[in-house]
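User: Predict the structure for this protein chain, please.
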Amino acid sequence: MKVLSINISEPKKITFNGKELITSIYKMPVKREVNVNQLGIEGDRQADLQVHGGYDKAVYAYSHKHYNHWSSILKEEFVDFGLVGENLTIEDFNEKDVFIGDEYKIGSVILQVSQPRIPCYKIGIKMNNRDFPRTFSQSGLLGAYMRVIKEGAMSKGDAVELQNRNAESMSLFDIAELLFVDLKNIEKMKKAINVPNLSEEIKEKFRERLMKLGDFSAL
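Assistant: Here is the predicted structure, written as structure tokens:
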């Protein structure tokens, strides 16, 4: 598989329902080589660092193959890259085949999968569909947030090469299903908490939910 597009954006103002919002979800493709450091791709900045960006969410990757799925669901043809605000549009990046902790080499950069995306309401604005955040969440087709393990440079067309995988890990799809669908699966949540390289943000969500379900063994 390879990178079809690298997409970046500075925060910008938009008006929605008469209110001004700041967002970086409207990312645009760049054709040049880009430098990547531990905070992300040069020229890309997040508007809300509480839910996007930072070390565990430095780069967001999404499968171009999913564009056809959303075109079918929303009855609209999507051809522009950066559809859901992703930094890397990858040829075929299947959440069932991508695991937490997977390390991928792209150009001279090495990225490590940390968690699936947790969508906010702004993706509904981007897709012009107020129900889209829930539909997106339930689908499991959330893409991958990634840490930068090795800084370097990458370009459109670079191969995406798996370098390392933990055999005891869980797939992005499995984690997404626990987050949004299989909400009371105590044993799987306990397993997820012990997955190396799963972001602390997601582990904490599972710990809180386990407590509400009466299981305190993960504390």
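The longest helix spans residues 200-212.
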